[in-house]
Amino acid sequence: MRICIVVEGCYPYAVGGVSSWVHSIIQSFSEHEFMIVTIIPDHSQRGKFVYTLPDNVTEVHELYLQDTDWGRRRRGRIKRTEYNALRSLLLDQRIDWETLINFFQKKRPSLNSLLMGEDFLHAVEEFYQLNYSQVVFSDFLWMMRSIYLPLFFTLKMKLPEADLYHCLSTGYAGVLGSVAKYLYGCPLMISEHGIYTREREEELVKAKWVQGLYKNVWIHQFRKMSRLAYDRADLVTSLYEEARLLQIELDCPEEKTLVTPNGIRVEDFQDIPGRTEEDEGWINVGAVLRLTPIKDVKSMIQAFGFAKEREPALKLWIMGPWEEGDQYAQDCFELVEDMGLQDDVVFTGRINVKEYLGRMDMTILTSISEGQPLTILESFAAHRPVIATDVGNCRGLIMGEGDGFGAAGIVTHIMNLEEISQAILYLAHRPEDRRKMGEAGYQRVSAKYRSEQMYETYQRIYKDFFQKERDRNRQTAGVS
């Protein structure tokens, strides 16, 4: 079976939970042929893979959301049906996605001409008068152009044909999957590790690059795209029950939803190296993550610094990559210096987590948004307790969901420096509690979050799609 994986902003350009999940799925189903459609900001990342692609990956296609418009120039107005479809999109009134897909896929319009043309202007004017007439129109018009350019690039992309499209989010990836289903009649599956729409809302609320009412327009845009994906998908999976309920709240039909928890190879963490001479006298706190704002590494460093004032033996290991010249990473380095923690905080860069986890006394995750973090499961497999903020499924993983194993760490509120520092101190001063919590985590991951269970679930899903597609092809052949 030819499976097309559609991802945005991760595999194969960046490491992280979703990327490692995609890589493991492809490796585990060597009998299938995989194609990758990957969405990135611009050409500067082209081909800069950090993963060696498995042999069963036969094609990689890139979509640049901030691309140069290579479409042919066209003059004149678009057809009335096409204008009505464009208008329905902007006004979010029974959006005619079929006409829009046909327009962008078959006519291949120049996006510059479209966005600067009369038709788009008139549709924006109507939307503006109905909803946002209190702001300056010229600013509003340019904002609408910036919103719709990446969506139009997405609708215009030429896609490879596959037996199944498997999108790892809604958003632009979900739009691509919906376009493919319309063009080729192939099944569409969406597996959300985090709820895309909610994550974009959280980012926009905090964003400084977009202000005031314009935040609402962007948020509404992402909701429109997610509704399209949920409507066209044959199956929508999530990692835990609360996420499934949120998908339903965001207009995903309940009958399409399915919970498919993450899983890891627990046995890979059984004989990992333990503490070294370097660790003698230290209480090691480990954080396995990328240095990005969503992980809120700054709060972690600050909370650690407060705990360090009361327990000098503490040492923080921040284990994960960052991009050269990245401003957030630089801010984190400077924060460590400003707090005088240069000897107490170690930035390892990209590492093999199995070489470090055994040296840690606990691990920590202070994210402002998560799904079901693999780093927590890996810590459990290494018998290590976890401190994590109450986001995504972190509480469910740490406290259990009625499984009887007990607490495997401590849950805190996001950005609450006092709570986080107190949690570090609590575990630092109670080695027996660390041991008990680490054992509870190990029992939980062994019982409920093994990779074998996850792969069996996806094997059944892929097999079911394959059988349905084969039956559909036989019926089509019989009719013809």
Question: Secondary-structure blueprint of this entry?
Answer:
Elements (H helix, E strand, L loop, with lengths): L1 E7 L8 H12 L4 E8 L16 E8 L15 H12 L5 H11 L3 H5 L2 H14 L5 H20 L7 E4 L3 H14 L3 E5 L3 H11 L6 H20 L2 E4 L2 H9 L7 E3 L23 E6 L8 H14 L3 E6 L7 H12 L6 E5 L12 E4 L8 H8 L4 E4 L4 H6 L9 E4 L4 H12 L2 H18 L2 H29 L1
Parallel strand pairs: 1-2, 1-4, 2-3, 4-5, 5-6, 6-7, 8-9, 8-11, 9-10, 11-12, 12-13
Helix pairs in contact: 2-3, 2-5, 5-6, 6-7, 6-9, 7-9, 8-9, 11-12, 11-15, 13-16
How would you sum up this structure, described in words?
The protein is an alpha/beta fold and 480 residues long. The chain has three domains: 168 residues, Glycogen Phosphorylase B (Rossmann fold), CATH 3.40.50.2000; 65 residues, no CATH class; 183 residues, Rossmann fold (3-Layer(aba) Sandwich). Helix content is 47%, strand content 14%. Helix 14 links the parallel strand 12 and strand 13. Helix 2 packs parallel to helix 5, helix 5 crosses helix 6 and helix 13 packs across helix 16. The longest helix has 29 residues.
